[in-house]
Specification:
The chain is an alpha/beta fold. It has two domains: 175 residues, Rossmann fold; 171 residues, Response regulator (Rossmann fold), CATH 3.40.50.2300. Helix content is 42%, strand content 17%. It has 13 helices and twelve strands. Helix 2 crosses helix 10, helix 5 runs parallel beside helix 6 and helix 7 packs across helix 8. The longest helix is centred in the middle third of the chain and has 19 residues. The two termini are 18 Å apart. It is found in: Cell envelope. Keywords: Signal. InterPro entries: Bact_Solute-Bind_Prot2, Peripla_BP_I, SBP_2_dom. GO terms for molecular function: carbohydrate binding.
Length: 358
């Protein structure tokens, strides 16, 4: 069983000092204490600051107590991320772990690193148009397939597959993972349901998702919407807010991803149907292991490759897990992702008791 993620995050916070946006001093060339730079794309999605960063940093320190760490969050600003990467290279970073704001437009940054002989790990989002050392992520097409299948199953049980249309709220068009999620969902849904409206949502923004859902309700009519394919939990929350405002008597099944706390609570109370639970700890720790190894001049073998349009990139792809209300206890709670006391607050307590969570 994994230890509590929040506990890990607290430990990480005490271990890491001077690791704010570019605050550490690089030590290029020191194979015993390499400088590792982590770049995350945004903070609207809870996972990045709450889990990815502290888990990555804690694992680096566990493997290499003397390693230096540089950290930057781009706040969904590609130009800001470019400045952050260039600053880290100037400071002497030995390895870059890059979750790109715009993964199709960072080849020039990777090229700058290559010119300095600094290896790059693409984290969570596949970088295209240039070669680099590793890609660490989840099987993103499988995520979309699982979301699509869960939605189809829920509609089939409700007898609504042929009673109306669904709305698809996809992620940011600058994130190649979004295209994978969308493709996976379409594999399952095309020809089986009617897609009334489909949106690609800039910045994965819950507010924009709410606006998109409002547009869909206006165009299709409240009573004609029988399902919502949302690519993540934040946007699912936005869609649910729009449906509440429109006076939906009951929520149609709606999907999500990331197992955000609010989403887990919505799943238990019946507002959201499911989420995709990602083992972010495994992803962050694998990236940390690879970063330390690269910093020490090693290059571990990868189990598979992913074609990024230029090269087959050595890759580590982790499996997603679909979680509905009946699976929260044996996945999210069992793993310590959240404690029962964190989930079962206020009006959620009764739903927790019904699901056997205490």
């Amino acid at each position: 069983m994994r230890t509590s993620w929040l506990a890990v995050a607290l430990v990480a916070a005490t271990l890491i000092s001077g690791c704010g946006n570019g605050s550490a001093t690089g030590n290029s060339g020191d194979k015993d204490a390499p400088t590792i730079a982590l770049f995350l794309p945004e903070s609207k999605t809870t996972r990045y600051e709450a889990f990815d960063r502290p888990l990555f940093e804690a694992k680096v320190k566990a493997l290499c107590a003397d390693c230096k760490l540089l950290y930057s969050n781009a706040d969904q600003d590609a130009a800001k991320q470019q400045q952050q990467v260039e600053a880290a290279l100037t400071q002497g970073a030995d390895v870059l772990v890059l979750d790109a704001v715009d993964a199709s437009a960072v080849a020039s940054l990777v090229n700058q690193a290559k010119q300095k002989k600094v290896p790059v790990i693409a984290y969570d989002r596949l970088i295209s148009a240039i070669s680099y050392e590793y890609y660490v992520s989840f099987n993103n097409v499988r995520v979309g397939e699982m979301q699509g299948q869960a939605l189809l199953d829920a509609m089939t049980r409700a007898g609504t597959v042929d009673k109306g249309k669904i709305v698809m709220i996809n992620g940011a068009p600058t994130d190649p993972s979004s295209a994978d999620y969308k493709n996976g969902a379409h594999k399952v849904l095309d020809g089986k349901v009617q897609i009334g409206r489909e949106f690609d949502t800039p910045d994965w923004s819950p507010d924009k998702a709410q606006q998109e859902m409002e547009q869909a309700i206006t165009a299709l009519g409240r009573d004609n919407i029988v399902g919502v394919l949302s690519a993540n939990d934040g946007m699912a929350g936005g869609a649910i807010a729009a449906m509440k405002r429109a006076g939906f008597p009951t929520m149609p099944p709606i999907t999500g991803q990331d197992a955000e706390l609010a989403a887990v609570q919505r799943i238990l109370t019946g507002e959201q149907y499911m989420t995709i639970y990602l083992d972010i700890r495994a992803e962050a720790e694998k990236a940390a292991e690879l970063a330390v190894a690269l910093g020490r001049g090693q290059k571990p073998a990868a189990p598979t490759t992913v074609d990024n349009g230029t090269k087959a990139i050595p890759s580590f792809l982790l499996d997603p897990i679909a979680v509905t209300a009946d699976r929260v206890k044996d996945t999210i709670v069992k793993d310590g992702f959240y404690k029962a006391s964190e989930i079962c607050t206020g009006a959620v307590a009764a739903a927790c008791a019904k699901a056997g969570i205490q």
